[in-house]
Amino acid sequence: MMTAPKMKESLIDRLPTVRGRLTENVSLANVTWFRVGGPAEVLFKPADEEDLAQFLSHRPGDVPITVLGVGSNLLVRDGGVPGVVIRLGRAFAGIEPRGTKIEAGAGALDLNVALAARDASLAGLEFLSGIPGTIGGALRMNAGAYHSDIARVFDNAMALDNHGTKHRLGASDMGFTYRHCAIPEDWIFTKVTLKGVIDDPQAIQARIQAIQSAREESQPTRARTGGSTFVNPPGKRAWELIDAAGCRGLRLGGAMVSEKHCNFLINTGSASAADIEALGEEVRRRVKASSGVNLTWEIRVIGVDADKARDGGGR
Questions:
Q1: Is-catalytic flag, 228?
Q2: What is the DSSP letter of 212?
Q3: Which of 35, 152, 179, 248 is catalytic?
């Protein structure tokens, strides 16, 4: 007597029970600023830090984990992201002033942290109003703009390692360098405390408004973009190298190098993730040929291409 072939166990059936939400095959194009990319194999929205810690401590060791903020500086490939994508929601978005410091959950928007600091008469965090994304992502890449960065205002942070163990991190632990920190990639920041200095809220607001105006004037803020594409090489500006290489306005499929600021790539409306990545690589090739400089992606590129996903090579 022939027996029916055994069905392959789905990933979600292998995962531990959680108090948050586990959902299969969730489109990530809807949550990234580029509005492109394939689905998460499983999307996990933890109920709180303890729920996340329990999940990490009990998950199968062979399941890859990816943490997603608001997708502002992210390109998800068309084949999607294998494993579990963790998105920190409202439970991780709290912001609490504490004297001359401000404590923020990793899911809090950078802009909201800057505004909360203003309301608490804390200066020094205005630069965050010019950085799209969440404070967890800003912490991971030592985000900076307008003459400051996370390293200058950092006090301490909380993170979970890949086994769910909680760690308190001081400045000496972070290993901050330009657009980088030394914390392992598989650790998840859950909370950060930043330092400010007392100042008049109206003066703080004026500086925030100046930053917002500067962004509107110099960047394609209303386009489908992923923010600054390449890291500035030492002593140079990426946009100047890109411009000198003749890439301003360069197109590939539905992707284009911004005419307004050529360190920004734009989805003109019909781009695939493959178009955007290929355009970025062409920009890198032309800059290398023109100046000898190897540009490094600042945008985080994750997932697998569509052909690999179709072939079942995602994991």
A1: yes
A2: H
A3: 179
